[in-house]
Amino acid sequence: MAEYYSHTHIYSLLVSQSMILLLCNWQPIWNAIIDFDPQVFIWLGDNVYGDTKRPFKLFGKERTIGPWKNAPRFIPSSPKELESRYQKAKSNPGYSRLRHTTQVIGTWDDHDYGLNDAGKEFAGKITNQKLLLDFLDEPQDSPRRNQEGVYTSYMFGPVGRQIKVILLDTRYHRDPLRSDGSVLGSSQWTWLEKKLNGPKSAITIIGSSVQVISNLSATTRPLFSLESWGRFPKERDRLFKLIADTKREGVFFISGDVHFGEISRYDCATGYPLYDVTASGLTQAVEKAVPHVFSLIVRFVAWLTPTTMRVISTNCRFRSCTYGQPNFGAIEIDWSTTPVTLKLEVRDIVGYPVTGVKFPLVELQSRGSVPSVKAGEHRRHCSLEVNLPWMIKYRLAILFYCSVSALLLAMIGLAYAATLAFRLFLHKCKLD
Fold first, then answer.
1. Of 27, 54, 280, 394, which is least surrounded by CB within 10 A?
2. CB 195 within 8 A of CB 243
3. pLDDT tens-place string over residues 9-61
4. Where is the PhoD-like phosphatase metallophosphatase domain (predicted)?
5. CB 320: neighbour CB atoms within 10 A?
C-alpha cells in the first residue's frame, strides 16, 4: 500500500452493507464500485444472510406475528448452509473482479452473525466467526481467529497521511435490546481504548455495523424500531467520551444495517463534528422491499420522520436526504489540496452521488469546547431525536393512527349510508 500512495494524491475507500439474500450472477452495482476504483473495500455486515426468514403467519400451528405469536420469524441456518452462501457470494463475478484489484476488509452484523437482532446470547457465534474470517481471507495466524469477536484495526498510508480504520464487533458481546447494557463488552472496550490512545493518524474511521449517531427508533416507535447505538445511550455516551478523552482528531463513523443510505452529524460530543456515513445495502434496500407503486409513500415517510441528526442538503437526490434504493458508501481524501479535503458520499447503482458532504479535514479538529444545549432548547446536529418534544417525536405514529381512525370512520360512514340507502330502497319497493 505504501508504494501505491507514493504516486497518488487521492486516497479513496468504499464502504457498504450488502444485505445479500440470494446472490445471482448479475449485480450491476459491482460495476459502479469497480469504476470508483477504491483502494480499500469495507464490508460492514449482513454480507450474506445466515438466517432464514419464515413467512408471516397470523393463524395456524406456528404463528410468527400477532399478539398470539408463538414461533420466531427468523431461525438460524446450519453452518454448512451459511458456508455455501458465503461461497456463492465470493464467486460472484463482480465481487471476484473487485477482490483482484482492491484490498477487502470487513466485520459482520446480525444476519451473517447468524440470527436477526442477535447479541451475545447466540450459540452459533464461534462457528460463524470462522466462516466470516474465511470469507474475508483472513490469514490463519491472525489474532482475529483466536479472540472472542471479529473486531480489528488497520493503518494505511505514509507518515503524515495515515488513515486508521477501526472495525467494531457490535454483536459478539452485545447485551439484549432494551437493557441499556453493553454493546462491545469489557475486552473490546479495553482494546478500543488502546487503539484510540495509540499512534496518531490524520484520519480515524470507526466502522460499526449499526448506526452510531442516528436514533430514529426514538421517533418511529411504536410503528417499528431500528437497531442503533441510540438504543444503548450509556454505551454511546461512553464512546463519545472516549474519543474526546483520548483527544483523537479526524474521527468519523461508517455504518449500515437499516436498508437505506444517509449521512448523520453530531456537533455536541467531542469538540468537533462527528459524521456517520450509513450505506445500506448493495442488493437489498427498503424501496425494493415494497411494490414499486409504494416508493413515493416510503419517500414521504422518510421525509416526515423527525430527525435532528441527518445532514440535509439541496444536492440530495430526494428531499429527505435518505436513499432507499441499492447504494454504496464512498470516501475520498484529496491530499493535494490546501487544506486537505474530505468527501463522504452515498452513491446509487450506477455510481452517481445521492447524498454527500465535502469539507476541509481541519473541520475534524477539536475547537476546545463542546457546545451545550439549554433545557427545553432543540438544535440541529446537537439535540438527539430522543429528546425532541413528544408532539414532534411521535408525529409519524400520530399521523398513522389518525389516518387509520379516519379510514375506519369513513368505512363506518359508508356502511351506515349503504344501510340507510338499502332501507329506503326496500321502503320504496313496499310502497310500489
1. 54
2. no
3. 344 566 655 433 333 334 789 999 999 999 999 999 999 998 998 888 888 88
4. 145-269
5. 22
Q: How far apart are CA 224 and CA 111, in angstroms?
A: 18
DSSP alpha helices (H): ranges in 154-287? 186-196, 217-220, 233-245
Residue 342, beta-bridge partner list: 333, 359
DSSP 302-340: HHHS--SSB---TTSSSTTS-B-SS-EEEEEEETTSSS-
The span from the CA of 62 to the CA of 70, in Å, is 6
CA distance 299 to 108: 28
Q: What angle do CA 331, 325, 262 make, to 5 degrees?
A: 45
Strands (E), 40-92: 40-43, 51-53, 74-76
What is the separation of C-alpha 256 from the centre of its chain, rounded to a whole number of angstroms? 2
Q: CA–CA separation, 54 vs 292, rounded Å?
A: 23
Q: SS3 for 239?
A: helix
Smallest Cα–Cα separation from 308: which of 267, 349, 360?
267
Q: Cα dist. 429→276, 420, 421, 423 in Å? A: 71, 14, 12, 10
